[in-house]
Design a protein that fits this description.
Blueprint (H helix, E strand, L loop, with lengths): L1 H32 L3 H18 L3 H43 L8 H10 L5 E2 L3 H7 L13 E5 L6 E4 L13 E7 L2 H4 L9 H7 L4 E3 L7 H11 L4 E10 L2 H8 L3 H4 L15 H16 L3 H10 L2 H18 L2 H13 L8 E6 L9 H17 L3 E4 H7 L19 H15 L1
Parallel strand pairs: 1-2, 4-5, 4-6, 6-7, 7-8
Antiparallel strand pairs: 2-3
Helix pairs in contact: 1-2, 1-3, 3-13, 7-17, 14-15
Length: 429
């Protein structure tokens, strides 16, 4: 009987080892690319633990099995507590926004889209190229579907709707030649502020014709790809490239993507993405539809089974160290590829470092180091780089006012974009 019991435990540990080996094989690259180290670490630790237990004596196997159960209970209990805490913080934030907003809209994006569909208004969720590329390894895009309405953001209590242009970017002004090509992530896209307060439209209001290829989630390589692809269709006198703090984290994944790495090579002319907009539109919309069909069971799977909240809080603790892991040589290659292509007239390029809320509180030194990395690389290619954080500090401007509702983690406010546009114009003259 003891032999059977011991064999059953050995078989159990062997099955668990095999199952985790398959999970590790299928997810290791994804977790590494996305920086989801806690998930990867847990899988590896349990895998080693299971393999060792296959060969232990019965009494040790039994104790190990109980230990495994206890650890799993602790992990998922901690994840549940963090989940409840996250929901509490979200509700607190929602109540704060509600008190600040004149017309508060508390609907989530799916309810908002569904309600508009009932009124025969077709509005799509604004999924990012980054989200698409992570889940579609055999197709390339840098923008959304063209000429469609999207629910872009609800950061200040109201849903912002935008309509994309013929290339899938957020632009109203379409001409042959522009003063400025604007690149970067959601800040270059003007996310979460009214249309007239978007940075591109601020620059247009100051007589600088501007076209933006900014998109939420874009890191330096996706921004480079967007610049190269759109430059085939328009002429630009200046390139203004916003690099926000989380671009260092985004670059980590981008460096692992073979499609994006091709843009390092100045001989690579791009994928001619906009020569067949219909194909891109279909792929993008099909992807949206596939994501929209994910119901509450998926949310529970991601949040509970995949330890989403534990990973989230670990990532927050780890974010400030990510910029230290990025090699300056990666930026060297990006800027060199840019300069070698002569995107603008006489290579008039301006790199603007954008600070986050924590750059003015507990991470000033980290932010300064991030800018120094960018400056070191850009100067090596005779590209001018400027630090918006230094400008705010030197002029004793109230940093909280630069963020929507003065909240940590939010995008810039109307005031923030107003000051930023003047800062850019001053450095272009």
């Amino acid at each position: 009987m003891n032999t059977i019991y011991r064999n059953s435990l050995s078989i159990t540990f062997a099955i668990l080892s095999l199952a985790l080996s398959l999970i590790l094989f299928n997810t290791a690259k994804k977790y590494l690319d996305l920086g989801q180290y806690i998930k990867l670490s847990i899988i590896i630790i349990f895998l080693v633990f299971f393999i060792i237990n296959i060969f232990l004596k019965k009494n040790l196997q039994k104790k190990s099995f109980y230990l495994f159960v206890y650890v799993v209970l602790i992990l998922y209990s901690l994840n549940t507590v963090l989940g409840v805490y996250s929901i509490y913080l979200d509700n607190q934030k929602k109540n704060y926004i509600k008190n600040k907003s004149d017309e508060f809209d508390g609907r989530d994006i799916f309810q908002f889209i569904e309600d508009n569909r009932a009124e025969r208004k077709i509005i799509l969720p604004y999924l990012t190229p980054r989200e698409f590329l992570i889940k579609n390894e055999n197709f390339m895009l840098v923008s959304a579907a063209s000429n469609k309405n999207y629910a872009q953001c609800n950061e200040a209590g109201n849903w912002k709707i935008i309509k994309t242009d013929d290339f899938g970017f957020n632009n109203n002004l379409i001409i042959d030649k522009y003063d400025i090509l604007l690149a970067g992530d959601s800040f270059a896209d003007g996310t979460c502020v009214a249309k007239n307060n978007e940075i591109a439209n601020k620059l247009i209001a100051n007589d600088f014709s501007t076209y933006t290829v900014g998109f939420a989630g874009n890191g330096p390589l996706l921004s480079l790809a967007s610049i190269i692809e759109i430059a085939k269709y328009f002429e630009f006198r200046n390139l203004v490239w916003f690099i926000y703090r989380n671009d260092f984290l985004d670059l980590k994944w981008e460096l692992s993507d073979k499609r994006l790495n091709k843009y390092f090579n100045p001989e690579f002319k791009g994928y001619d993405l906009f020569d067949n907009n219909g194909n891109i539109d279909n792929k993008y919309i099909n992807f949206i539809n596939s994501q929209s069909k994910k119901n509450i069971s998926f949310e529970l799977k991601e949040s509970f089974l995949e330890l989403k909240f534990l990973e989230k809080y670990f990532s927050l603790l780890n974010t400030s160290t990510e910029s230290n892991k990025i090699d300056v040589k990666d930026f060297d290659k990006i800027f060199k590829s840019l300069v070698d292509r002569n995107i603008t007239n006489n290579n008039q390029i301006l790199i603007v470092y954008l600070p986050g809320y924590s750059c003015f509180t507990n991470e000033k030194k980290v932010c300064k180091n991030e800018f120094n990395k960018i400056k070191s690389s850009s100067e090596g290619q005779q590209i001018k780089s400027i630090n918006f954080m230094n400008y705010i500090d030197k002029n004793n401007l109230p940093f909280k006012a630069f963020f929507s509702l003065e909240m940590r983690g939010n995008h810039y406010s109307n005031y923030g974009y107003d000051v930023l546009s003047n800062f850019v114009i001053k450095n272009l003259k």
